[in-house]
Amino acid sequence: MDEVVAALAAQQNELSELLGSLADSGWRSPTRCEGWDVADVVLHLAQTNEMAIASATGRFAAVVAELTQGRGPVGSIDDGASLMVELERGKPPAELLARWAEGAARLLDELNAMDLSTRVTWVAGDLSARTLATTRLAETWIHTGDVAGAVGVTLAPTDGLWQIARLAWRTLPYAFSSAGRAMTGPVAFRLIAPGGEPWDFVPDEPAATTISGPAVELCAVAARRVDPSATALRGEGPDADDVLALVRTYA
Predict the structure, then answer these.
(1) 109 with 97: CB under 8 angstroms?
(2) Are 187 and 243 contacting, i.e. CB atoms less than 8 angstroms apart?
């Protein structure tokens, strides 16, 4: 199994174990996703896994049309996600858990069966299947944290964060472009892993800007779950503030 897919499988397992321990009341706990309870978050993950399966199997547009019930174009990706959840909100926890588990397993099967260099369609445009797997890892990690926080569970960070931090570093040009900004020069990440070892992501050319600090905090900032000012992350160089403001691991 490819290391990215293995990391995704491990993250799926962590969420499945957390969800399996919840009483029905836990599914109604509000999360840090505004207006969404745990059930809504799991529904969103199930829906986006179904979109990823469709991406891997060449049915992306058709499945998006099904999930949005043909409601036409929406204002933004976030608007589309909100619409899909709204259209299916209120399903029983047992049904949501089964749907989540089935989709998670099928996504792994599809990714394991394909060449991960294959280009596929996703909400942000064409990308490799390996990058799709990494974005699914990142989103599953983000929402696992949302669920855990809602029900008062503390989860220890794992080395799967390496893939997420690398995604945040590699997609900085996309993040800047989406915000209508230009990078002054290459960026390096010099991060500390959960186990204390260094995780360095460095460009081929000398870095103009360097971001340093805990990898888990960088991933949380990229997930828009914590403000950079509330972390130990530090930046040097002309783009330091913009990198921390714009870095992201989701479309």
Answers:
(1) no
(2) yes
Give the SS3 label for residue 153.
Answer: coil
Q: What is the pLDDT of residues 137-182, one digit of tens each?
A: 999 999 999 999 999 999 999 999 999 999 999 999 999 999 999 9
d(CA 206, CA 132): 29
Query: What fold does the segment set 3-150 form as a domain?
Result: Four Helix Bundle (Hemerythrin (Met), subunit A) (1.20.120)
- Left (φ > 0), alpha (ψ -120 to 50) or beta: where does 133 sit? alpha
> Rounded to the nearest 5°, which phi and psi values hold at 30?
-70, 145
All CATH 3.30.1050.10 domain ranges of the chain, comma separated, are: 161-246
Instruction: Give the separation between CA 140 and CA 171, rounded to whole angstroms.
Output: 18
DSSP 30: B
| More confident of the two residues 41 and 178 | 41
Compute the distance between CA of residue 251 and CA of residue 196 in angstroms, rounded to an integer. 29
Distance CA 148, CA 132 (A): 24
Where exactly does CATH 1.20.120.450 map onto the chain?
3-150
Reported as half-sphere exposure (CB side, CA atoms, 13 A), residue 208 has a value of 10
* pLDDT value of residue 78: 85
- Is residue 137 within 8 A of residue 7, CB to CB? The reply is yes
- The second-level CATH assignment, the architecture, of 161-246 is 2-Layer Sandwich (3.30)
